[in-house]
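> agent: user asked for a holo structure of the chain below bound to copper (II) ion. Plan: (1) validate sequence alphabet, (2) canonicalize SMILES, (3) run complex prediction with ligand conditioning, (4) return tokens. Step 1... ok. Step 2... ok. Step 3 dispatched.
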Amino acid sequence: MKTWIPFSGLSLLVLGVIGYFGVAMAHVITTPTPVTNTVTIHYKIVGAEAGALGSDGKHHDTFTALEATTVPAGSRVTIVVSNYDNAMHGMAFPDLHLAKMISAGQDGRPSETVFSFVASQTGKLRWYCPVPCDGDNQAWAMRADANGGGLGQDGFMAGYINVA
Ligand SMILES: [Cu+2]
């Protein structure tokens, strides 16, 4: 029989993880968000060869939103991403503890990734691509930009959804 060692590093880690999710679950249970609206925002990803021009004078891997990115608070937001780049990308929303991987397109045919979340609180929801990319240009598009909002250059591998 294996003996439980009360205060080993592992048991503290396990308790910590349980505690974290316990608090997170309690938050979810005690603050239900009424969904009052639904919004779909399409994004298109292209590789550097077709991407936007950066402040460094080079073209980079680029996300483009095809609809307005301001949504009313209480919206269920569905994100649909068409990735024409033959490389993986992703969208991470730190404020939502949400990260979604986006598979590579192939031979000009885009992959499609769909996910959704509820935008419950007003404010700017920043997202960035957490997948190593923009390899043609030393990952410039992944670097934290002057806004200091975390990884990613806004307008390339980072952006915002404004919850108003
Ligand atoms: Cu990326």
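> agent: step 4 complete. Summary for user: Residues 61, 89, 129, 131, 133, 157 surround copper (II) ion (CB under 6 Å). The radius of gyration is 19 Å.
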